[in-house]
Fold Stage II sporulation protein E.
Amino acid sequence: MLTAVALLIGYGMVGWPEHVTGAALVVPMVLANLMLGPRTLPWLVVFTMSVLVFAVSLTDNLDGRRVTSILVAFLVGLVILVSSFHRSQLGVAGARGESMLVDLRDRISKQTQIPELPDRWYVDAVMRSAGGSSFAGDFFVASQANDGRLLEVAVVDVSGKGEQAGTRSLLLSGAFGGLLGALPAGSFLPAANEYLLRQDWSEGFASAVHLSLDLDTGDFEIRSAGHPPAVQLMAGSGRWVTHEVEGPVLGLIKHAEFHVVAGKLQVGDALLLFTDGLVETPQRDISLGIDKLVGRGERLLNRGFEGGARRIVDDLGSADDDQALLLLHRR
């Protein structure tokens, strides 16, 4: 059908040159870019440009307006042709290729959403990408036991930021989501480390913090892989406690060991898990950033825990790095 449209436009250029110009051939090429697959699209563009050349060869008078329209049509065809070769690497061209990638992102994102918790618990998770992209190098994965008692959450920071880390982040979020909850808490980070080592990426490392929480008692365990420490608000005393845990980043060392720190969330307590984009900048050391997070967090959370994670990210977040923050509060 699009070839017929191109032929009709070419016929119009020859028969009614004062009404039909070469720019009209942009229409079938743009429609083809949206509708056709990677094998068919280049041939349609070449055919349309051939029609343009043939029609021009039969035209006697070429004024400035017609020359401009011809150049525009050739330029658009060239751009579509080059972009189709890049998109063909995905195997699906045009809007279908882009929608497939977005659908993949959305499906994986649904698997990594924080599950609904009992009323006595409140959780707020916020993730933002550098530059406002939909793809980020930071992500959450979460799992809740069938009996609803044990909650496991991992906050992961993949090397790189924004769209540069987006593809690796998508792959790892799906893989880590499958590991979390399927293994004992102490085996998650070692398994994640081995998985990353097998990928053999040039930038194949990531930091992570893993929380295992008993929702009945409030007892928790935290393990870290080169990640910023978790911070706990002790409601009874009003103090903030930093839970430092040793462990190498994922994807660098075989048979790495990850230590554990245990604690308890009492009624009124809160726990913050975050990535370094929230506390570290080229001009500020991470320890100073954590102090600033605690200070700002104390003031912001005085207004209540509802929406607290978003308020903290709005206040401390930077557009130059990905940021992720999880706020967990025991009511």
